[in-house]
Amino acid sequence: MDKKRFVEGRLKKSTSSDVLSFTESVSIDWRLYKYDIKGSIAHATMLAKCQIITDNERDIIVRTLKKIEDEISDGSFEFKTELEDIHMNIESALSERIGDVGKKLHTARSRNDQVALDLRLWMRDQINDISGLLTRLQKALVLSGRDNIDVIIPGFTHLQHAQPLLLPHYLLAYAEMIERDKGRLKDCLKRVNVSPLGACAMTGTTLATDPMVTADLLGFDSVCHNSLDAVSDRDFCVEFVSCLSVISMHLSRICEDWIIWASEEFGFVDIDDSYCTGSSIMPQKKNPDCLELIRGKCSRIYGDLVSLLTLMKGLPLAYNRDMQEDKEPLFNSSDTIKNCLSLLADLVNNTKFRTENINKVTTKGFLDATAFAEYLVQKGVPFRDAHKIIGDIVVACSDLSCSFAELSLERLKDFSHVIEADVFDVLGTENCIKNLKSYGSSAPEFVKKRLMEWENIISSDN
After folding, report:
1. pTM, entire model
2. Range(s) of the domain holding residue 90
3. Which of 272, 370, 386, 395 is the most buried (most CB within 10 A)?
4. Residue 327 has pLDDT above 50, yes or no
C-alpha cells in the first residue's frame, strides 16, 4: 500500500502526509484489537447466518482474523499509520491476505458503529477488572481491621479531636465507600452492555441483517433502539470515567489520612520502607510518596472526565471526528485507577499501626465529652443544658491540665448536682466505646459483627 492513504469515495486526491500524522489514531487505539477482531468475527457470523456471505467465506474470514490477532499479540504485526486506526489496519491486512472475501467483512457495518462496539467490549472488561481490584482493597482493609480489632483511635472532625472510635470501624468506613463504588460500576455496566452494531454510519442498512445475532454472540443484554443514537452516544464513556473519579476521590481521602498519620506529629502508621522514598539531601526522610502520588493522580482522572464532557458538549448528531479524542482520557483513567488500586492494596497490607503513639493521643482532646453530655441527658438534663455544662467542665480541666476523670466527684458536682459516682463508668475512651448502643456505631459488638459480614462479602466477590 502507498504511504498515502487510498483515495476514498469522491475524493480525487490522497491524504497528505501531514494530515495522516494529524488524524491517525492507531498509536492509541491499537489496544482495542482484541475487541475489534471479536466484533468482526461476530459480524461475519451474522452475515453468514443472514446469507449475505457464505459459510465458507465466514470461515476464511474468521481463520484469518484469528491469525492477525495472534500476530498483534506476539508483536509481529506491522501497524501502518496511513491506515489511520486499528479498524482499517486489521481490515486492510485481512483483504491483503484473502482478497475479495476480506473486503466483504465491512458489509452492513461502518467504522462508526464498529468503534462504538469496540469501546463497549473494552469497557466491560475494565469494569470487571476494576471491580476485582476494589474487592482486593476491601480485603486489605478488612484484614487490617481484624489485626487491630481492639485499637481505639481519635476520630476527627475539622481535623480536631472529636470522639473515640475503633480502628476497624474507621477502616470499614472505606470498605463501605468502595462497595458503593462497585455498585456504581455495576449500574454503569447496564448502559455499557448494549450493542450498537447494525446502526452502520447512522441510519442502519437496506440489507436484511439481524443485530440480535451479534448481540447474543458478544454477550450483550440488548441492542440500541436508535441507530443515530447508537453511533453518537458516548454517555457510557462519561459515566464510566465519572465512576472512576469517585473511586479516585475515595482513594485520595484515605491517602490524605495516612499521609498525615505518617508524620512525626501523629506517628499513627508505619508504612513499609518499600512503599516510601528518601530525600536527595535530607538523609533522615521517609516520604509517603506512593500515597501522595495516588492523591495527586485523582486530579488526572478528574481532568479525563472534564475532557470527555467538554469533547461531547457541542457536537451535533451524529458521529463527528472529534469523538476520536475519547480514547486517550478513557484509557488513561482506567490505567491510572487500576495502578492506584493495586498499589494501595499492597501498601495497606504492608502498613502497621503504631498503637503506643495512638494510645497516648487518645487521652488528649476530651474525646469523651459527648459521652459525658449524654450521661447528663440520661439523668434528665436537656441536651443543650448538658452541652453547656460539659463546656464549662472542659474549660476548668484545660486550666488544670487534667482530664474529666481526674477531677474528683465533689468538683464535678459543682457543675451539676445530678452527677454521681457512676459517671466514672462513662468517662474515658474505653468506656465511651463500650457504652455505644446505636446501629452502625463503633460499639465493639457491632464492629466485630460487621467485620465478619465483610469477610463473607469479600469472600463471595472473589
Report:
1. 0.94
2. 17-107
3. 386
4. yes
Contact 43, 110 (CB under 8 A): no
Report the distance separating Cα 41 and Cα 110, nearest Å.
Answer: 15
Residues 62 and 119 in one domain: no
Catalytic residue among 76, 158, 225, 417: 158
240 and 351 co-located in one domain: yes
Specify the CATH number for the domain of residue 66.
1.10.275.10
Residues 93/105, Cβ–Cβ less than 8 Å: no
DSSP string, 11-23: --SPPPHHHHHHH
161 is catalytic: no
Residues in a beta bridge with 352: 270
The answer to whether the CB of 231 falls within 8 A of the CB of 110 is yes
Q: Which amino acid is at 35?
A: Y
20-76: pLDDT as tens digits: 889 899 999 999 999 999 999 999 999 999 999 999 999 999 999 999 999 999 999
| pLDDT for 70 | 98
Say whether 225 is catalytic.
no
CA distance 195 to 220: 6
Active-site hit among 27, 222, 279, 342: 279
User: Are 61 and 189 in a shared domain?
Assistant: no
CA 205, distance to chain mean position in Å, is: 38
Can you tell me the mean pLDDT for 278-299? Answer: 95
